[in-house]
């Protein structure tokens, strides 16, 4: 079945993005505080509070990652980007103390993917950022594995609450393995079941499913 | 900000989790195209001015709009890549529902997607006919290793008359229970008409 | 892989049955079966054994290892060792489940056997997780895992490979990349 089932294009997780991945497109929509380093003529209207025709040097704008990446130029500074606080030293100290206490859903939720994307901007802290990402992942791994492999037939929303998007999909993979095995052990594995699409459409109360 | 409509299309697709098919948003796509057209025309104008009047200060703005064009293009490609994400979902429908889709789902597909679905259906059928030394083999059956030729099923809704192997017909009435050839009812179970009862 | 597919593979394992009917050799694509004579033990694949058993055409002889004393030894050894001990059958879980579900009347102390096998499985899975964790936390690059069965690998496989893939991708950026990747072409 696996080969024909719908499986979406995965996020790339890294400095490159997967062009067609919905997750990567949404991740690159994350807003970054940026400072404009050169005049942008005729784009003043993008700033709601201003009546100017141009965007002036020094203006601070919330720009999505994709735009900052597109405008970023190693030679000529057009925009400079502020490192989101979760990747800055203060938070890095928190992560190295105990990565498990951090609510990555609230602070992320694309903590790892976005963190790796931030490496594009030649920050002097790049090495530290990259190291923290690895340590955080490793430090949180055990808890994700145990919770995903132990929670059978229960509400998992509390368990995934603080996980970032990447961790959630990992948790899902663990649950799929556990559920498959439990289902087999109970003798339900060979049962033919209604398609998940049918179940979902029914949930959404499609009254007429007649062909 | 530019490209808001495009990201809305992507969010829409993402919200329809588990491979469902949201309604094809022709209007949203048209709006993105309009924005792209406007961006392109403005850029074209500014490029000409920059060239003829040496206004190199316009370059950052041109670059800005260009980024937005590329972004819209990417979002549309991912959405529309009708031919990709949506097609993967549509292909999954053939395996889940069989060759005839419920109207509620057909309603969510645009004409080109229906056409694609029909073509996919045909090539799958051609391939399946060619299997087994020309005898044909339905490879959408027995997605899990079958344990027996006949299985016990319960009817979840009034379906009507149903013809089985030997030419006899039985009446599939809600809550009635039957012992039927597995290959005859697998698709109906997937469609939620029957339920597989395990002893 | 779906566990039902793993079980399907397990159904090819040979078991001994004692039929109560007679039948000449049967020639199938997968090999010859029989001949069957009442009271004479014969080896057949598990799927056939269960089918015959369901129709009360035979008695199943449990595999040699499916025995309380032997399984107790295996369980103790599994608990004592840090590594995975060799298991008597690569399909021990599947065989236990299928035989106990369909032929428990032919297997002495069926309930005890069920518990022993489950204990062994639990011990092994706990070990598997422990080693997965130390593999990740120490950021090892290779490991040797002997004596694992397909069902065990299948249960944690996707999770484990996914997590290693993620780790690899996150770690790949510890070294600064060349400048060529920084420029964007329009």
From TrEMBL, chain A:
The keyword Nucleus applies. Component of the GINS complex. One of its GO terms (biological process) is mitotic DNA replication initiation. Its main location: nucleus. InterPro entries: GINS_A (IPR021151), GINS_bundle-like_dom_sf (IPR036224), GINS_Psf3 (IPR010492), GINS_Psf3_sf (IPR038437), PSF3_N (IPR055221). Pfam families: PSF3_N, Sld5. It comes from Erpetoichthys calabaricus. CDD domains: GINS_A_psf3, GINS_B_Psf3. GO terms for cellular component: GINS complex. It is found in: Nucleus. This is DNA replication complex GINS protein PSF3. Residues 21-71 form the DNA replication complex GINS protein PSF3 N-terminal domain.
Automatic annotation (TrEMBL), chain B:
Keywords: Chromosome, DNA replication, Nucleus. It is found in: Chromosome; Nucleus. GO terms for cellular component: GINS complex. It comes from the Eukaryota. Residues 53-131 form the GINS subunit domain. Residues 147-198 form the DNA replication complex GINS protein PSF1 C-terminal domain. The keyword Nucleus applies. InterPro entries: GINS_A, GINS_bundle-like_dom_sf, GINS_Psf1, PSF1_C. Pfam families: PSF1_C (PF24997), Sld5 (PF05916). GO terms for biological process: DNA strand elongation involved in mitotic DNA replication. CDD domains: GINS_A_psf1, GINS_B_Psf1. The keyword Nucleus applies. Component of the GINS complex. Required for correct functioning of the GINS complex, a complex that plays an essential role in the initiation of DNA replication, and progression of DNA replication forks. GINS complex is a core component of CDC45-MCM-GINS (CMG) helicase, the molecular machine that unwinds template DNA during replication, and around which the replisome is built. Required for correct functioning of the GINS complex, a complex that plays an essential role in the initiation of DNA replication, and progression of DNA replication forks. GINS complex seems to bind preferentially to single-stranded DNA. Belongs to the GINS1/PSF1 family. This is DNA replication complex GINS protein PSF1.
From TrEMBL, chain C:
One of its GO terms (cellular component) is CMG complex. Residues 2-61 form the DNA replication complex GINS protein PSF2 N-terminal domain. Pfam families: PSF2_N, Sld5. It is found in: Nucleus. Gene3D superfamilies: 1.20.58.1020, 3.40.5.50. The gene is Gins2. InterPro entries: GINS_A (IPR021151), GINS_bundle-like_dom_sf (IPR036224), GINS_Psf2 (IPR007257), PSF2_N (IPR056784). This is GINS complex subunit 2. Belongs to the GINS2/PSF2 family. Its main location: nucleus. It comes from Polypterus senegalus (Senegal bichir). Required for correct functioning of the GINS complex, a complex that plays an essential role in the initiation of DNA replication, and progression of DNA replication forks. GINS complex is a core component of CDC45-MCM-GINS (CMG) helicase, the molecular machine that unwinds template DNA during replication, and around which the replisome is built. Keywords: DNA replication, Nucleus. One of its GO terms (biological process) is double-strand break repair via break-induced replication. Residues 65-161 form the GINS subunit domain.
